[in-house]
Amino acid sequence: MGSRRDMEEVIATGRVTVNGEKALVGQRVAPGDRILFDHKPIRNQAEGATPSVLLYHKPAGEMVTMHDPEGRPTVFDRLPRVRGRRWLAVGRLDFNTSGVLLITDSGDLANRLMHPSHGLEREYAVRVMGEVTTAQLESLKKGVMLEDGPAHFDAIRFEGGEGANRWYRVTLSEGRNREVRRIFEAIGLVVSRLTRIRFGPLTLPPRLPRGRWLQLEPDQVRSLWALTVGTNEDDSADK
User: At what angle do helices 4-12 and 107-114 cross, to 10 degrees?
Assistant: First the structure.
């Protein structure tokens, strides 16, 4: 029905009831409970039901938002419609970044996959203007200071290139805003192309065209759930 933060505000204003009583933020509900939002019943998904998860190949030039004030295209424009449900992005990729983006109809699963304590790896193919020196490589591994704290790559390796551009493969285990770009900027290099090629265990299929998606099989979704066991919900974003 919306983001976790939006729904907390909705609940706090008394617009949600459970079995005729005003709901409380953090209140637990069971499959048999009757939930109303603005006096309209909400489908209470039975325990054990498998959410839907899409692996979307985001092209550069799309926003990860339901509505863009500037009228730019969004990733949700291309997705199939789902009755009684809403697609939610697992984190974000910025306007100029392409690659793997997971989209689900389960807010619980989305929050768990983004939770920083779990540390799901994100892997990127990065093209930078200029060559990274040996000293700079060490800095990228050990950590650089950003405005929101220290950051580093868990791994980085040279992938080739000539002239003004060089390609690198990097991995990191968090998803702060524009983090990959800002890490390279901290050592004086500009990222000219950025593609996320892996999120956790899911790799971008080589034959999946930009702007297309595929739906994960139920066993793949259950594997994602298994990765989040023991984590708490939180908000996060990827760039």
Answer: 120
Q: Which of 6, 38, 68, 94 is catalytic?
A: 94
Q: Which residue type does 49 have?
A: A
Nearest to 196 by CA among 118, 129, 144, 120: 120
CA distance 229 to 216: 19
All domains of the chain, ordered by start, with CATH? 4-41 (3.10.290.10), 53-117+202-227 (3.30.2350.10), 122-199 (3.30.2350.10)
- pTM of the predicted protein model: 0.76
Question: Among positive and negative, which fits the CA dihedral 221, 171, 214, 4?
Answer: positive
List the structure tokens of 174: 């968090």
Which helix (H) or strand (E) segment holds residue 219: the answer is helix 218-227
Q: Residue by residue, what is the 3-state secondary structure of 43-67?
A: CCCCCCCCCCEEEEEECCCCECCCC
Q: Residues near 172 by Cβ (< 8 Å), separated by ≥ 6?
A: 121, 122, 151, 152, 153, 154, 179, 180
What confidence tens digit (pLDDT) does each residue in 165-197 have? 999 999 998 888 899 999 999 999 999 999 999
Reply yes or no on whether 68 is catalytic. no
Give the model confidence (pLDDT) of 181-239 as tens digits.
Answer: 999 999 999 999 999 999 999 999 999 999 999 999 988 998 888 887 754 444 444 55
Coil, strand or helix at 3: coil
Query: Whole-angstrom Cα distance, residue 208 to residue 125?
Result: 16
Where do we find the tokens 């900027």?
A: 185
Note the Cα 165 to chain centre separation in Å: 28
